[in-house]
Design brief:
With 211 residues, the protein is mostly beta strands. Helix content is 15%, strand content 37%.
């Protein structure tokens, strides 16, 4: 098992990441461009959405403005893009993911990462990846639950680079620090926002709002 704080501190740019444990969910976004960094998380009736911190600086909203978190019945859906809406509208995690593919942002072809957390504690993680032949590889990881203090982490990228290297392998088993520790561990230049849901209590962190 890896230490999540050390894992994040050692990686300047994991991109966007999801961590799911028995009593908490974390979702963070990072950015290298002005457009990506010009964002905040705001609460909605059924989750959160991203918004431009300064609307005058917003360039292309297509891949950066979306609902990262929504409820689907008694389940919680967390993703790094507008596939959240696809999943919720389908009412089925796998069906929603199977209808989508990686982002069209060549040369990175950013993978779509998604999670669904069920009321019984079981959860599923997914990553939709670009392959060299242009096809989409859709990977699913289903868990019956997680032990106390243990989470499973998946991110869009392995680290910084050009093009950005896609996350590889299974979700990483990690220790579960407190939300403040996760926020502090993210690279201070690249971090943008963090959603923390601990036992149903939601806390939002936004660099652009001084957090």
């Amino acid at each position: 098992m890896r230490n999540l704080v050390e894992l994040l501190e050692s990686n300047p740019y994991p991109g966007r990441g999801i961590v799911v444990g028995c009593d908490r969910v974390y979702y963070f976004i990072m950015g290298r461009s002005q457009n990506s960094r010009n964002r905040v998380f705001v609460e909605t009736d059924d989750g959160i959405r991203t918004e431009a911190h300064d609307p005058a600086l917003l360039e292309d909203p297509s891949l950066i403005i979306y609902h990262p978190v929504r409820t689907m019945g008694d389940a919680l859906v967390v993703t790094n893009g507008d596939q959240t809406d696809t999943i919720v509208e389908a009412g089925d995690f796998r069906a929603g993911c199977m209808a989508r593919e990686f982002e069209p942002d060549a040369p990175n072809f950013t993978p779509r990462i998604s999670a669904v957390v069920n009321p019984d504690g079981s959860f599923e993680l997914s990553i939709l990846k670009h392959q060299e032949n242009g096809r989409c590889l859709r990977e699913f990881f289903a868990y019956e639950g997680a032990d106390a203090g243990v989470g499973y982490f998946i991110s869009t990228y392995q680290g910084d680079g050009n093009p950005l290297p896609t996350f590889a392998g299974e979700p990483v088993e990690v220790s579960l620090p407190e939300p403040d520790e996760v926020w502090a561990a993210l690279n201070p230049e690249n971090k943008v926002s963090l959603y923390a849901n601990v036992a149903g209590k939601v806390t939002l962190y936004n660099k652009n709002l001084g957090d």
